[in-house]
Amino acid sequence: MKTRFADLIGQEDVKKKLNFYIDAQNKTGKFPFLLLTGAKGMGKTEFAKETARNVLAKDGAPRSFLEINCGTIKNAQVFFEQVFAPVIQGNEVTVLMDECHALPKDLMTVLLSAFNTEKADVKQVNWREGLYEFNFKKQTFMLATTEADKLFAPLKDRLTPVDFQTYTVGEVGKIIAKTLPDVVFKDDVIEKIASTVRGNARSSVQRAKQIELYCETKQKKEFGTKDWNDLCNKIGINPSGLNNTEIQILRALKDRGDCSLNMLSAITGMSRSSLQRDSEIFLLQKGFMKIEGQRKITAAGTKVLEQLSKKS
Amino acid sequence: MNNTETVKRGRGRPAGSTSFVNVSLTDLDQFVGTSSAIPVSRVWLQKMGLTIQPISRTIQEAETADSTPKVEFKITKL
């Protein structure tokens, strides 16, 4: 028998938690309302799908998996009319409500009431002129978001958190190697490749696809350091996977000295929020920058700029 | 004097009660969407200095029907 989550690399804590809840569901019929949180590309959807594969229906087969993009739900009425009544009600199904921070307020209120299952597993909801029935013996609900702080706090309190972690360089390497089973990686090239990926599963697969394209174009089955350097030159992969905005930030900090966020925003032409969300977090994680009132470049940041100069 | 007149006397809007409530545009948008026609007071519009041709009911219904947002979802048999 195949082990659960065997095809998914990393996230060991997440696997342990989900295994526990799957066992509980299949033995007692009880499954908590899970809130999967983590940055984009961490594998929330894949783990939810794999969980669904192991949550069994009455006939012993896996339940259907329903994935809803909550950003497209305008209000509770359209949810009940277009999704709940035709697909969920009365059926055995595992539901993933993705980007749940974007749920409309009226639907959050409905879910808040429906997810209060202290007294019964079946909850009836009156909405406008319709009566809808949630049956949590038949339906499992998981919510996922990248922005848990934006979720309606009382609803968040009803959910059991499962948080995803950044993938290590080793795990990224394993994901790349697993995505390309026909390619033989020579030397320690896999570590070099992994060091340019941003610690998430989606970026790892994207990098693997670039290597696959390179190998197919060159009709190669082996991929070594020389090939990697060639690919980096061709498609502009920088050391540590830095993008041009991040390099611009590091150069500004090196040339001008310490800067405020406003100053960096003026230099790069990017908004403050975009800089904080998309660039600064990565630079801080990598230890290339620190914030002590002002933004400062670190020794590691200076070193990576030197590597870039040598490269060009 | 008939009975109806007697019964009706004293009815109507009690002092202090109002017919309107304040709703933020954001909340209203969540329920009806941006393309729905919302009835507003003609006097209020005039005070705001706006002159707008009323939308005919037929057009309004057609637009509402077309603009029903579609929820994106995918069901997979595992």
Descriptive report:
With 312 residues, chain A is of the alpha/beta class. Chain A has 3 domains: 12-163, Rossmann fold, CATH 3.40.50.300; 169-237, Helicase, Ruva Protein, domain 3, CATH 1.10.8.60; 241-311, Orthogonal Bundle (Arc Repressor Mutant, subunit A). Chain A contains 13 helices and 11 strands. Chain A has helices at 12-28, 44-54, 76-88, 105-114, 153-157, 169-179, 189-194, 201-218, 225-235, 244-256, 261-268, 272-286, 299-311, and strands at residues 34-37, 64-69, 93-98, 122-127, 130-135, 139-145, 160-163, 184-185, 222-223, 289-292, 294-297. In chain A, the strands form 4 sheets. A 5-stranded parallel sheet of chain A has the order 2-3-6-1-7, with helices on one face. The longest helix of chain A is centred in the C-terminal third of the chain and has 18 residues, at 201-218. The N and C termini of chain A lie far apart (52 Å). The model of chain A has no long low-confidence stretch (mean pLDDT 93). With 78 residues, chain B is mainly alpha-helical. Chain B has a domain at 21-65. Chain B contains 4 helices and 1 strand. The model of chain B has no long low-confidence stretch (mean pLDDT 73). β2 (64-69) of chain A pairs antiparallel with β1 of chain B.
Principal-axis shape of chain B equals elongated
Q: How many beta strands in the DSSP annotation of chain A?
A: 11
H and E string of chain B: HHHHE
Radius of gyration of chain B, taken over Cα atoms and rounded to an integer in Å: 21 Å
- Secondary-structure class of chain A: alpha/beta
> How many domains of chain A?
3
Largest sheet of chain A: 5 strands, parallel
Kindly report the greatest chain-chain contact and the residue count on each side. Answer: A-B, 24 and 15 residues
Q: Could you list the spans of chain A in which at least 5 consecutive residues all have pLDDT below 50?
A: none
Taking the sheet with the most strands of chain B, its summary is:
none
Tell me the number of helical segments of chain A per DSSP (H or I, 4 or more residues long): 13
Examine the coordinates and then state which fold CATH places here, giving the name of the CATH topology of the largest domain in chain A.
Rossmann fold
Helix content of chain B: 25-40%
- The proportion of residues forming helix of chain A, as a percent range, comes to 40-55%
**CATH architectural designation of the largest domain in chain A:** 3-Layer(aba) Sandwich
| Count of strand segments of chain B | 1
Pattern of helices and strands of chain A: HEHEHEHEEEHEHEHHEHHHHEEH
What is the fourth-level CATH superfamily of the largest domain in chain A? P-loop containing nucleotide triphosphate hydrolases
